[in-house]
DNA sequence: GAGTTAACCAAACAACTGTTTGACACAGTC
DNA sequence: GACTGTGTCAAACAGTTGTTTGGTTAACTC
């Protein structure tokens, strides 16, 4: 049977070759798979199936499983920077962070996995960038201390870590949440409720910025 | 002509048979291995090597990898119950929980892994028991609310979760901690400092029990 | 249209993982 | 000493995993 020959005009609906699209499909599928099962639990075959592409293309486009993992880490690192909004009052920052479980659940899970899989600064490509990102929150805490709104005995770095860990709880401790609250920890309903609660607690701690209406911007 | 039967080591090691000891060796090694790498990342061979026993004994004594995992989960569940001390003031409870990362780092990591690997109440053998264990803390928060020491708008379950997540941060977010504080998140030095900070924050929230004699603090 | 390159695929592949097999050794009993 | 049941082991096993190979096809160039 003679193969019907060439079509000059591109057909969007048909399966045509599109390396960029394929790369993106793989990356998206990899994010979902790694987020769901972690590095060790993720399966190349499952990623390919999710992406709807041949398994071999993962080796073709990326440097195997490990290279693919590095690629999605790099990708999320770029996106996460967008989350940072200097000058945002702390309660609002925390709120946004908690709601990230709704907007980018994969990213939050990825960060949680990487914490448990962590094997030292040298193996963590995000080690430097991340601390830079958090420095903003820490400075914010320091400013509140300087303004006398927070006891000096509080370690700003520790408090920031606590807030971050608390914000990630719906992702890191879903089994505990489901047990004590009976709600679905991944549901929008719960996550929004939880974010609200987080803000209440943050305010209770006195983390409200000195001038809540006019955040001071400085570059 | 049939080959003569191969002789094993002519000089067998002077090792006493001790099934109970072997079981325990395997369980200890399994705790360490599962805590270090999670279920998917753990290797039966590595557990056997850690325990210094033949790999096959894992199948002999337990029901394979999965059975072994269930066995150590069961084991930790029993121990964790000891941690509960009804009537302990909340800040002290939290402090103890944070220090658990020092006493039983494997148990804390196990709980963290199980959160990410969580696939619903039906697959979680600890689902029921855990919520019971936490009920004490939740009731404590409720009591504080009733005593007017904590705003009624605070959801006791959410606050308990936040505290728990915050207490586990040195285990769940070591990469973040190392980045922002420069300290080793698994060191006794840091964990004790962090536990102290947690207590400070808890008191700041007004979680001090009504009758507990605590020195007044001013910032 | 011939030729070239790059995207893609199916199957083969080697390495690894957990489990099973069959044999052996120790301890207790007769 | 022979017998028996259980603890222990090395090796074989079957299933899975990630990667490589070799070939096929679309798109692009001349």
From TrEMBL, chains A, B:
Q: What is this protein called?
A: HTH tetR-type domain-containing protein
User: Which positions does the record tag as DNA-binding?
Assistant: 43-62
Q: Which UniProt keywords apply?
A: DNA-binding
Q: Which PANTHER family match?
A: HTH-TYPE TRANSCRIPTIONAL REPRESSOR SCO4008, TRANSCRIPTIONAL REPRESSOR
Alphabetized GO MF terms: DNA binding
Fetch the Gene3D superfamilies from UniProt.
Answer: Tetracycline Repressor, domain 2 (1.10.357.10)
An example GO biological process term is: regulation of DNA-templated transcription
Question: Residue ranges under compositional bias (Basic and acidic residues)?
Answer: 11-21
All residue ranges annotated as the HTH tetR-type domain in the record: 20-80
Instruction: Specify residue ranges for compositional bias: Basic residues.
Output: 1-10
User: InterPro entries, per this entry?
Assistant: Homeodomain-like_sf, HTH-type_TetR-like_transc_reg, HTH_TetR, Sco4008_C, Tet_transcr_reg_TetR-rel_C_sf
Positions of the UniProt region annotated as Disordered: 1-21
- By its UniProt entry, which Pfam families does this protein fall under? TetR_C_21, TetR_N
